[in-house]
Amino acid sequence: MIPIYSQKNRIKLVVVIIALIIGAATITYTNILVSKLSEREQELVQLYAKGLRYMINAPSDDNIVFIEEEILSSNTTVPVILTDENENILDSKNINLPENIADKPDKINEYLQREIEKMKEQHEPIVVPWAEGSVNYVFYKDSELLSQLRYYPYVQLIVISCFALVAYFAFSYSRRAEQNRVWVGLAKETAHQLGTPLSSLMAWYEYIKSSPKFENEPILEELGKDVRRLEIITERFSNIGSVPSLRDENILQVTQNAINYLQNRISRKVAFSIESTFSPDITAKVNVSLYDWVIENICKNAVDAMEGRGSINIQLVLLGKSSIAVDITDTGKGIPKSKIDSVFLPGFTTKKRGWGLGLALAKRIIDNYHEGRLYVKWSEVGKGTTFRIVLNR
Predict the structure, then answer these.
(1) How many structural domains are present in the chain?
(2) 163 vs 15, 24, 32, 173, 237, CA distance in Å?
(3) Is the pTM higher than 0.70?
(4) Would you say residue 162 lies in a domain?
(5) What digits encode the pLDDT tens for the residues 204-213?
(6) What's the domain range around 206?
(7) Buried (b) or exposed (e) across 290-303, using 16+ Cβ within 10 A?
(8) Max CA-CA distance within the chain?
C-alpha cells in the first residue's frame, strides 16, 4: 500500500524539477543577453579608440568637433581610462570616484591605477597609435548595467529559493497542524465511543463478580483484566492531544508488565525475552499507559512480520547519564533499505488488512509526548529488525 505522503513527495519532486528547469532557462537566457551587451560595449569602446585615432590625423577642425560630440561623447556608460605607453593616466571617463578623494589628485591617480588593474582582468587594452610612433592604451571594463545583469539571475534564484523555503516550511507547519487536529479529533471521538459500552461492561463485571455462581471462576479474573485493559485504552486515546504527565517509573518493571499482558494474547509460538544492562531500580520519565501502547504496537508488528512464529528480544541499555534505550529485536522478514524511511508514515503497511497507523502513532507518542526518539536501529531482509526507543531519565 503506497501512503498518501509518498505521492505528495513525488509531487514535491516534480515541482523541484520544474523550478530547476525554470532557473536554468533564466540563467541561460540572461547569459545570452549579457554576451550580446558585452559585445556591444566592446564595439563602443573600439569606436571610441578609432575616434581618438582619427582625431590625430583629422584634416579639419569640423571633423574633430564631430568626432568629439558624436563619437567620443556617446559613451556614457562604459568606464574607460586612456594612458600613454607607460600607463601614465591621460584621461578617464565614466569612473565613479569616491567623494573623499574628489579633490586630491594623488589619491585620484592611485584609485585609477587600481581601476586599471581590475580592467586588465576583464579585457585586453585597445592600442591607439599616436604621434611619432608612440602608442596609447584604452583600458575599459564592464558597465554597471552589464555587471548587474550578469549577477541578476543568481540574485533572482536566491530570492525565489528563500521564498520557496519559507513557503515550504509554512506549508509543512500547516500540514502538521492539520494532522494534529485529525489525530486529536480521531482519538477523542474513539475515547468517547468507547466510554458508553465500557461503563456498561464495568457494571456487568461488578454484578457477575458479586454473584455466588461465579465465585472462584478463573475466567472472571481474565475478564477483569480485559475490562481494565479497555479502561487503559480509553485513557490512551484521551491523552492524545493533551500534554500527558510523565513520571519517573521503573522502566524494566513497566516494560516487563507490558510484555506479560501481551504474551497471553498472542501466538504461543512467539518467545519473548527481556535483558537489562543496568540495575533493576533505574527509572525513566514515561507515561505508563502511552508507553505500553508503543510496546504493544511494535511487538504486534513484529509478530505479524514473523507470521506468528519466532522470537522477540527486548534489551534495555543505559545511554550515558541522561537517557535509556529500549531495543526491540524480532526474527521477522526484515525491512528493505528503500522502505526504512517510510515505515513510520501514516498509511504505510505491508499487510493486506490494516490502516498503517500503529508505528506512526508509536513514533508520535515517543517523539512528541516523551521528547525521545523512535527509529529503526537495524534491519536485514530475511533476518529481522531492531526498533530503538530512546527515553529521557
Answers:
(1) 3
(2) 14, 18, 26, 15, 39
(3) no
(4) no
(5) 778 788 878 7
(6) 172-239
(7) bbbbbbbbbbebbb
(8) 136
Which are the contacts of 80, defined by CB distance < 8 A and separation ≥ 6?
A: 45, 48, 92, 93, 94, 138, 139, 140
Q: 294 and 325: one domain? A: yes
Integer Cα distance of 254 and 47 in angstroms: 89
Q: Which residues pair with 201 in a beta bridge?
A: none
In a shared domain, residues 21 and 119: yes
What the block records as the C-alpha cell of 250 is: 521503573
129: its cell numbers = 597609435
Letter string b/e over residues 178-195, b meaning 16 or more CB atoms within 10 A of that residue's CB: eeeeebeeebeebbeebe
Decide which of 19 and 270 is more confident: 270
Please give the DSSP secondary-structure letter assigned to residue 266: S
Q: Do 297 and 372 fall within a single domain?
A: yes
Contact predicate 387/377, CB 8 Å:
yes
Q: What is the CATH number of the domain that holds 353?
A: 3.30.565.10
Identify whether the C-beta of residue 205 lies closer than 8 Å to the C-beta of residue 227: yes
Residues 265-268: contacts with CB under 8 Å, at least 24 apart: 266/299, 266/300, 266/303, 266/308, 267/303, 267/308, 267/309
Query: Which is nearest to 244 in space by CA: 150, 370, 69, 106?
Result: 370
CA-only gyration radius of the chain, Å: 39
SS3 state at 128: strand
Helix (H, G, I), strand (E, B) or coil at 117: helix
Give me the DSSP letters along 109-163.
HHHHHHHHHHHHHH-PPEEEE-GGG-EEEEEE---HHHHHHHHHHHHHHHHHHHH
Better-predicted residue by pLDDT, 245 or 388: 388
**Residues 235 and 268 both lie in one domain:** no
**Any domain includes 148:** no
Asked whether the predicted pLDDT for residue 240 surpasses 70, the reply is no
Amino acid at 232: I
Is 186 found in the same domain as 78? no
Rounded-to-integer distance, Cα 230 and Cα 224, Å: 10
The torsion defined by the Cα of 229, 233, 234 and 235, in degrees rounded to 10, comes to: 100
pLDDT digits (tens, 9 = 90+) for 260-285: 888 877 888 999 999 998 888 899 99
